[in-house]
Amino acid sequence: MITVAVTGLHAGENPQPGVGVVRSLRRRFADLRIVGLVYDVLESGIYRDDIADVVYNIPYPSTGLEAVLGRLDYIRARTPFDILIPTLDAEIPAMLKLQHVLAARGVRMLLPSPEAMAARQKSELPALATACGVPTPKSRKVLDVPGALAAAEELGYPLFVKGPYYEAYKVETVPALLEHFYALMGRWGGPIILQEAIVGQEFNVMAVGDGDGNAAGFCTIRKMIVSSQGKGYGGIVMRDPALTDAGLALIRHLKWRGPCELEFIQDEGSGTYYLLEINPRFPAWVDFPSTIGHNMPALILDALLDGRMTPLAPCEPGYFYIRHTEDLTCRVTDMGQLTTFGEWACRATVPA
Amino acid sequence: MYTAKLRDLLMNENGFAFDPSTGYTYNVNPVGVEVIGWLKEGCDEAELTRRLTAEYDVDAPTAQRDLEAFLGALQRNGLLPQREEVLV
Predict the structure, then answer these.
(1) Which residue in A239, A316, A322 has the most chain B C-beta atoms within 10 A of its own C-beta, making it the best mutation to test that interface?
(2) Are residues A217 and A304 in the same domain?
(3) Which chain B residues are within 8 Å of A241, Cβ to Cβ?
(4) What is the ipTM of this complex?
(5) Do A163 and A249 fall into the same domain?
(6) Chain A residues lying within 8 Å of B23, measured CB to CB
(7) B24-79, pLDDT tens digit by residue?
(8) Residue A349 domain-assigned (yes or no)
(9) Where do the structural domains in chain B lie, given as residue ranges?
(10) A331-349 pLDDT, tens per residue?
(11) Domains: count for chain A
(12) Whether A317 and B24 lie within 8 Å, measured CB to CB
């Protein structure tokens, strides 16, 4: 029996990757116990009967590493787990700091190097893109209003205003720029990124790097449906050598270890792919390639259990996904259990 | 004509086509399906016009005009190179 702890189990609006990660793992490993780690009792995935065996509340990383570690120690004492797969952006820096402490306790994770994490930050993207020969939209880091106005003047409108970790807004006027600048600064702190707006179709790459510069898993899609928040609610597998080359160049340069999502936009005039972001975790559509024989979460377990991952066969075009939401019927008593005790054995066979 | 992209295009007999390099899908009418088949055989514009007038009840100027419109649509969708890039 392998026990794996997974975070990011909300699959409602703006879904997180955890549910897809678990579904992919269960496709490959029959003898699997899943410990769901949640920040909120309303993370929808825990109420499906095929995701978590047991669920525990955990504190946000911003609470401090000691609090996170203390809670994980408590959980491990109740339900020992061997592997932890963090799936949210904000968790990765904290887990990088905790990985050696957790490894000493027998908990393994597959994370990128701190250097690769630093190089893929939004503010460092232009330098990374130049080093890899991959174009990226012109962008400027700004920390104050005069700096933002000057950068916007230089880049021209429309442009994107982005927080350091999350959120991006397209703005066409100075008032809109300032509104989002203040809001993002208040929520996330600086630097705020102003980025030239490229017009065109959006493409995503999901990959798992082996840490030596190779991609053991690699799937490219074009977003078919984009939500009001810019999320891909439908995507179709495609394979353009130019996009594949760009993605592999980044993974090779960063010697990326573990999962990542590379976001690109293709300029509709020139056909050039521009790198927009590198996310250091699986995307929410992680389970889609698994359904067509390209199971990337399983690679993580292979690497952590056997010390190696066998490269998957190429992800072939011919399939697409569409996100489909369903209403789950849940017992109030289950939510009460988690709210009151911070833990809930969803499956009766698993003690919490 | 340079038809490498067209050769990769996956198309069924009903004219539903999928370009695996972009993920775009298209609906092509029966005449278009036939013209794409002829392009893959290597026909040039003169031969395409000849075949259209031979197979359909259409005169050469009309066939030529419709053909230009169709080839233009293929070019705009990146399935044929723009005219200045055309390798004959």
Answers:
(1) A239
(2) yes
(3) 21
(4) 0.76
(5) no
(6) 221-222, 224, 236-238, 317, 320
(7) 999 999 999 999 999 999 999 999 999 999 999 999 999 999 999 999 999 999 89
(8) no
(9) 4-85
(10) 999 999 999 999 999 885 5
(11) 3
(12) no
